[in-house]
Amino acid sequence: MITITTLLQRVSRLIPGCVAALVLMACGTPSYAQSVAVMVNGEPITNYDIEQRTKLDFLSTHKQPTRQEVIDELIDQKVKIKEAKQFSVDPSSADIDSAFADMSSRMRLTPDQLAKTLESQGVRPETLKERIKADMVWSSLVRGRYKESLQVGEKEVAAAARAQGDTPDEKAEGGSFEYKMQPIVLIVPRGSPQNVVEARVKEAETLRSHVQSCEEANALFKSMQNAAIRDIVTKTSADMPPSIREGLDKTPIGHLTAPEVTKQGVEMVALCGRNPTTVDTPQKKQIRDKMFADKFEAKSKAYLAQVRKAAMIEYR
What we know:
CATH class of the domain at 177-276: Alpha Beta
Structural class: alpha+beta
Radius of gyration: 28 Å
Mean pLDDT: 85
Low-confidence stretches: 1-29, 168-174
Strand content: 5-15%
Largest sheet: 5 strands, antiparallel
Distance between the termini: 37 Å
CATH topology of the domain at 177-276: Chitinase A, domain 3
Oligomer: single chain
């Protein structure tokens, strides 16, 4: 009886080096693409991995990265995921698929469409999902471990504003407000002809002229067919772009904003309240967000350098 060990020994004499690579590739496949370029903590980075990531980076940035830049990215990816696992930060496949779907939605694509777009450029969707996973776990890990030192205080915001030669003056910015709103939609089925859309816009304008309070809006739109009014949401000036703030500031309390055509149909907002607030103004929020991003970047780089230094990295 021929044992597996004996069989492998015979194969190794026929094809030198094949047994050593058996865990990484089938002996009959192209050797370069599947050959190992780097070992990171016992995990391989193959030339195929490098090729795939190079194509993905080019699609993302429209710049051709060097081979070493791509290898460094893949090493970072490996050490980030391993470090995160040590702290039980390990998203499931469903979590990764959900993040992939969110990305495709921002690109106005379905997950299948994004996958096919990648494949048409020679990139496996799994290559992007691995990058998404590394980014997810690392962001969560850095935020969790350095939560206290990443906080940005009011004094820091004021000091940063003075250093830029600015003063976060709420009066100069027109003040910061807290808006209480109820989104409204007159539903238009997808694919409807333009005349149907225009008819609903005219209907929205007519209804808008009749509504004088949020109570009236609720009574009207809750009883209408092919229409919906949602629960009250609260947002501040800092949460919204200037164009939306401008529209809300021009709308009297209890009235509706101008209708806007969206994927759902014709949408408006019932403005139920607009009150001054001491919460961040748009200018303060911009300063605060940048300061947080700078702190996060510094902590991330230092932490990554630390885990890379401790990693076992072997170039082949």
